[in-house]
Amino acid sequence: MRFSTNYLIYPENRALERAIANAIGMLSDEAAAAAVPDTNVTVADNFRYTRGNYEQHRFSSRTFESLRETLEGSLTDTPAPGTPAPTISRDRAPLAWAAAQNDLGNILAALGQQRGDAELFEQAIRCFGNALAEFRQDNSPLEWAATQYNLGTANQALGRLLETAKPFKVAVDAYTNALLVWTRDASPEDWMFTMHQLGDTFHAHGKLLKGNRQLQKSVVAYKNALAGLDADNYALELTAAHNNRAAVLHHLGESEENPERLEEAIRSYEKALTVSMEQQLPIHLAVLCRVNRTTAQNVLAELTNDTALAEEVADEFEVIIECFSHALQPLCLRHCEEQMDKARSLALADSASR
Fold this sequence. Notes:
This protein is mainly alpha-helical.
């Protein structure tokens, strides 16, 4: 089973933002100044919110390496001669040490995503394991839950990078642990974000296994996340949840050869598109939702041999290419061209057979 291409949206990683904010005071003035993002860039970033789990735009990614070096230096048990003594001692301040391990883990994972480096993700996972040696559910429940969440996200990203199942299983266990503390009533926002991440994890795992059960779990997780979202306070997250839920339904419809699943996916993509447009999110996100919806319609046209729909799909892709090429990533533009040709072929084949 080969799934068609669709595009996910990743909300900003708030845990990463907090890690940077916590550690930035340890940098020199010059290094801290470099953490300010460049707001003078005039070219739109069509990859924004599509790169992966470690999206953040509050700080410049150029500061990640400085933050890593500074945090690692502060946690070194035996500093090199001529360097200051470690500023965070596990023996004297175990919870502060665990918090720094948590921050370092997020920075390492962000670097891992930036560089496509599995070893950096594995280092991040070890940092979260170190933090969990001090943060326990009984003595630091909120910190324990946050670290479990971070552990889940690093493993999810590692699973995507390596295309292997074990990290996804670890991620699901970690997110499930976080939900022992982050209940819907006690921590509704954290519960919602965790449900979203479970949706992402089950989807990626299901695609890897080509297993409908994991995809069905993903649909349920996204549905739970949607229950905690509204357009006024969580426009990006709501758009992402509708779009990503649709992407799962899209793949589930292909796997089951089920037109009703595809129709549900199309409706969910349309909800994402509506929220994105009404809340004036970056235009490329609306275009991605539109590309996803039209791709699902193409699958539906082929599955049901609906040549009228195929003609509509071809026309829609032509409009997207002609009017929104400036908002498309290069590979997405190629995808649109291929999908348009595929729809045209289906429509022409039917005409030729008459």
